[in-house]
Amino acid sequence: MVSLQTPVCDFGRSAPNFNLQGVDGKTWTLDACNGEKGLLVMFICNHCPYVKSIRDRIVRDARELKVLGINCVAIMSNDPAEYEEDSFENMQRVAEAFDFPFPYLWDESQEIAKSYGAVCTPDFFGYNADLQLQYRGRLDESRKDAAPEGVRRDLFEAMKLVSETGAGPADQIPSMGCSIKWLES
Fold first, then answer.
1. Domain membership flag for residue 184
2. Could you say which DSSP state residue 143 is in?
3. Per its UniProt entry, which superkingdom is the organism in (predicted)?
4. pTM for the full predicted model
5. In a domain, 22, yes or no
């Protein structure tokens, strides 16, 4: 398992469109996912210890961001042949077990992860209402284990600012996680 950090936020970069199957049986597009004040695109998976340690916090933040007009979507781009835990069936189980309040989509070809420039799980891309990138940072100071309760909620605070002003914070701390498991060419 390779641990990586996300690059610095490329402010203003437009969100790439997608058309992906969700665990709910629906096909989702960027426009269908977007909220009134923005969209948080999360690249996650089922097996990664970094994601496992914060799943409950992702769900909490997604519910609170929805009230602020920010919708969320999660995309799984790993090759499930390498990690069975990341199979579509297991995606369905995880989404149900954690009561995901957002679409959980499978990027089977990995083209969407590549178009976003995703490098790890979790990798967060926070967009304003015009779908311009405003946040590319961490959820909080959690790593392979959840940070203590009461730590600064970096992602939530950044996306709250985006909902209020359309712009994200200038200072952002990169997310850290497991490398995306790319298909062999």
1. no
2. S
3. Bacteria
4. 0.96
5. yes
- Strand partners of residue 105: 22, 75
- One-letter amino acid identity for 50? Y
| pLDDT tens readout for residues 26-72 | 999 999 999 999 999 999 999 999 999 999 999 999 999 999 999 99
**Short-list 59, 15, 19, 58, CA closest to 35:** 15
Q: Do 154 and 6 form a contact (C-beta atoms < 8 A)?
A: no
Instruction: Work out the number of other CB atoms within 10 angstroms of the CB of residue 108.
Output: 15
pLDDT in tens, 113-140: 999 999 999 999 999 999 999 999 999 9
Query: Whole domain around residue 73: which residue ranges?
Result: 3-179
In a domain, 185, yes or no: no
Structure token digits, residue 5: 């950090």
Give first-to-last CA distance, the chain, whole Å.
19
The CATH number of the domain where 80 resides is what? 3.40.30.10
CA distance 47 to 55: 11
**Letter for the amino acid at 19?**
N
Can you state the angle between helices 154-165 and 55-67, rounded to 10 degrees?
20
Mean pLDDT computed over every residue of the chain: 95
